[in-house]
Amino acid sequence: MRIGVPKEIKNHEYRVGMTPAAVRELTSRRHEVFVETHAGEAIGLHDEMYTRVGAKILPSADEVFAHADMIVKVKEPQPVEIKRLRPGQTLFTYLHLAPDPEQTAALLASGCIGIAYETVTDSRGGLPLLAPMSEVAGRMSIQAGAHCLEIAQGGRGMLLGGVPGVPAAKVVVLGGGVVGTNAARMAMGLEAHVTILDVSLHRLNELDLQFGAMLNTVFSTIDSIEENVVGADLVIGGVLLPGAAAPKLITRKMVSQMKKGSVIVDVAIDQGGCAETSHATTHADPTYKVDGVVHYCVANMPGGVARTSTFALNNATLPFTIALAELGPEAAMKKNAHLRAGLNVYKGALTYGAVGEAQKLPSKTAEEVLGIAA
Length: 374
Prior knowledge:
By secondary structure, this protein is of the alpha/beta class.
């Protein structure tokens, strides 16, 4: 198979779809890999490192898309990239379609096969290609939140862990999944006062056993969310409904009642955000204020630590990339139900029900479009 790796063009996005080590795995299996020049330059992955392992360096994204049967990226394709896609071409990347009807419509019109990292599953019910970036984003959320609490950034002027004789900041984490667990771990490490809310008693029990008295666990209801969010210095939004729009757990009224200079870091912004006051921002202009509350809603948070994120992501995506290259997309998805769960768009058909529900569009199952008997 011919695989293309274009340079990412989203604002301040320096990750790259494949590392030289990943490329070597593909070229050793006699696949052709085309990499856009300087695709990994910003994170120390130079063109010569790719040529050394058998990749062909091309001078433009146009040529990469034209040569490739499958495009491997990191972030969702931008409008100019979608125009380069052709019918039947495979796109393997994060898509986050639920809150993005424009991208959905454009991908459907392109006729491509769109496989989304964030909805590929595993045998344990997890999301293995989302997990590494959720780990990064969860850890970064505390880093970003601590910075936003500084008075020069518009915050309350609080040190997250306090000092002897001065109380630590109150950190509230919504969601006990990968993002929330990593956020809580980092916040506790900085000696903040941490509370995590989740609707799963089983998950709260696991967190309680894992962290003990250092972590406060609270069952998530409208009342408990309101009480904890309003009293927080830093709120981390880490909720997820796989492939669907994030639930709006933080209302505008709650935001209006929060302390001036408190901070919301909405990690769920890729799926539309979990606060009614959230809208996507970029690393170039990451924050804004609503009712005196600082909102950090960068839609590609892991891009801020692009080298770490690239290697973490490639560790997870490589087995699936190899399967797609070796068997072709249809055969690979027929063989592997977990990879099949990643299929969001197939040659003009929407194939992920949660996206259809979010956008009120008709959808088919992956099994229907691939001709797999029920």
